[in-house]
Amino acid sequence: MAAAGPGGGPEPPAPRPRVDATAEAGELIRELRTEHGPLMFHQSGGCCDGSSPMCYPAGEFRTGGSDVHLGDLEVGTPEPVPVWMSRAQFAYWAHTRLTIDAVPGRGGGFSLEAPTGRRFIIRSELMEEG
User: Fold this and answer.
1) φ, ψ at 5 (rounded to 5°)
2) In a domain, 67, yes or no
3) Helix, strand or coil for residue 82?
4) Gyration radius of the chain over CA positions
5) pLDDT tens, 43-97?
6) How far apart (Å, rounded) are the C-alpha atoms in residues 56 and 110?
7) Region annotation Disordered: residue ranges (predicted)?
8) Which of 42, 30, 38, 39 is nearest to 70 (CA)?
9) pTM metric for this prediction
10) For position 120, which CATH number holds?
11) Which of 89, 98, 121 is nearest to 108 (CA)?
């Protein structure tokens, strides 16, 4: 039996997370986790790597007050994988839901997937108001 929400009706569905991963990205993240231990992502702000999600060993990329924690990926690793973005870039992406995907290609130079022949990319969609 469905849980009752406010007013006695059915509970509304849980909101979709701000950041998620495709099955392909999840597979690559699990492979990288096996080799490198706990991981994290930081959505780069452009320049040499365009605007791509960079994957690092957890704690190797320092985050602080100038970064926004977008959420954690639950992809079958022992621990969630945090995803971060610079606060300045977040101002442009604030109304989007981001999905990390993995496709054939060469990854960013400092991102862990670079030597695998696959790379992480970001797919975005506008978040619904409400």
Assistant:
1) -95, -170
2) yes
3) strand
4) 16
5) 977 554 457 899 999 999 999 999 999 999 999 999 999 999 999 989 888 899 9
6) 8
7) 1-24
8) 42
9) 0.83
10) 2.60.300.12
11) 121
